């Protein structure tokens, strides 16, 4: 039986909280603490009455002292950081000061530069080890389940993995011309950055959306997908021995890309503050205020997501391919927990990751990415808690998209 302090009460946190309450055998007590306490109280009112005891608190997670005070008061076994990547380090500092386990779903980012690097959090390794506590980094879907899939593939299906392609497809439609499925600021920072992939020990940089492929996703159908940099590439390139190449692709519809390009062209996706009528404004934060709240997309989103990894490597001296993926239905998620599948596919692994740590299955002092733990209990829990996975061993799956580089000049298209 464990106590979890959950920081944040947005789309992802709401799903994780529903799942902790469903899993009352492990999560005996939770405290939902966020910047806006009324959101925590609303969720508590909705979920109260079950076996898990729920309390709420107001906290500014940028403030280490406030966090330490709250942790001393509630005495959790783990802090689940489901706020924003900007708060990762202050929450880790508070966990160190109170010797409490830590987990998150996204790597630390300074507010003024979109870096997507683990270095700041990896610098905490020795201090967490000395304090005898575990920090589990990136326990969402990607990063998260994609790392668990990689560790599972290596453990059960390969002697050596040479190639990994992570394929993230959202085949859902929310009916808006433009909206983001999770926090718009984080989402737009991610997709407007240069693409990057890792090959033969080097990072190869591409222009944003430069490399496009078409893939026929099981249960979703054919979609355009684009090569992006994604944070799990950094840790997987280090943690999967013998790897020759790892890439990440995400699907985007034409309407999303056209809107994004226009917003970029007028400067609305910039994270550089500008002065407007005597006030400092970050254009991307202003844009966030104009866009639909991702939490409001739940009732309108129809269709499915399909996220998985294609591995190619060797087993017993022979070439082998292996595709493992999860398909999730937006409407089914909404029926169960009142959220669309993007929040669902992140919130469920967040609960499972916290469960792995507090039940002692994944309890080793230090700071670890998810693929550094035994994948088996996590894979089992995915099937149990709403994200069942499927496998395909057909070698043709890796040849299903051509290898040539395809440049998509949206700018020229718009100007033309
Ligand atoms: P939301 O914007 O919906 O929620 C963020 C929550 O954090 C809000 O409740 C917000 O409070 C709270 N918050 C923000 N700043 C502070 C602060 N200083 N102190 C306390 N609380 C704060 O985001 P999402 O739920 O969509 O995303 C949550 C996290 O999940 C992000 O880090 C995101 O990058 C990550 N993510 C990971 C994925 C994965 O697969 N690994 C996929 C999708 C998301 P308020 O209500 O006041 O705004």
Automatic annotation (TrEMBL):
Q: Name one GO molecular function term.
A: saccharopine dehydrogenase (NAD+, L-lysine-forming) activity
Show the coiled coil region(s): none
List its EC numbers: 1.5.1.7
Instruction: Tell me which residues make up the Saccharopine dehydrogenase-like C-terminal domain.
Output: 140-386
**What InterPro entries does the record point to?**
NAD(P)-bd_dom_sf, Sacchrp_dh-like_C, Sacchrp_dh_NADP-bd
Q: Where is each Saccharopine dehydrogenase NADP binding domain found?
A: 5-136
**Protein name, UniProt field:** Saccharopine dehydrogenase (NAD+, L-lysine-forming)
Organism the protein comes from: Ammoniphilus resinae
């Amino acid at each position: 039986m464990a106590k979890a302090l959950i920081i944040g009460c947005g789309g992802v946190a709401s799903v994780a909280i529903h799942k902790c309450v469903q899993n009352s055998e492990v999560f005996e007590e939770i405290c939902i603490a966020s910047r806006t306490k009324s959101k925590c109280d609303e969720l508590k009112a909705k979920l109260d009455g079950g076996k898990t005891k729920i309390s709420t608190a107001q906290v500014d997670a940028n403030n280490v002292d406030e966090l330490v005070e709250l942790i001393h008061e509630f005495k959790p076994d783990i802090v689940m950081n489901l706020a924003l990547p900007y708060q990762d380090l202050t929450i880790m500092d508070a966990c160190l000061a109170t010797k409490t386990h830590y987990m998150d779903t996204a790597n630390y980012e300074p507010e003024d530069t979109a870096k997507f690097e683990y270095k700041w959090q990896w610098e905490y390794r020795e201090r967490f080890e000395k304090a005898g506590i575990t920090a589990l980094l990136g326990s969402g879907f990607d990063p998260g389940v994609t790392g668990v899939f990689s560790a599972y593939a290596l453990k059960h299906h390969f002697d050596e993995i040479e190639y990994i392609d992570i394929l993230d497809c959202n085949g859902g439609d929310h009916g808006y011309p433009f909206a983001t499925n999770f926090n718009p600021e984080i989402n737009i920072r991610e997709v407007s950055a240069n693409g990057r992939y890792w090959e033969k020990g080097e990072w190869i940089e591409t222009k944003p959306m430069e490399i496009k492929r078409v893939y026929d996703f099981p249960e979703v159908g054919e979609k355009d997908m684009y090569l992006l940099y994604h944070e799990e590439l950094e840790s997987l390139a280090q943690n999967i021995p013998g790897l020759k190449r790892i890439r990440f692709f995400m699907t985007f519809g034409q309407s999303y890309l056209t809107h994004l390009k226009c917003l970029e062209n007028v400067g609305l996706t910039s994270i550089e503050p500008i002065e407007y009528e005597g006030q400092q404004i970050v254009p991307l934060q202003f844009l966030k205020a104009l866009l639909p709240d991702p939490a409001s997309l739940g009732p309108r989103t129809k269709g499915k997501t399909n996220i998985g990894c294609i591995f190619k490597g060797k087993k017993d001296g022979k070439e082998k391919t292996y595709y493992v993926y999860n398909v999730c239905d937006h409407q089914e998620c909404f029926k169960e927990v009142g959220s669309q599948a993007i929040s669902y596919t992140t919130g469920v692994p967040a609960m499972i990751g916290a469960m792995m740590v507090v039940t002692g299955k994944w309890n080793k002092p230090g700071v670890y990415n998810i693929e550094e733990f035994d994948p088996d209990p996590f894979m089992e829990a995915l099937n149990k808690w709403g994200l069942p996975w499927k496998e395909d061993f057909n070698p043709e799956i890796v040849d299903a998209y051509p290898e040539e580089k395809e440049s998509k000049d949206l700018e020229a298209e718009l100007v033309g």
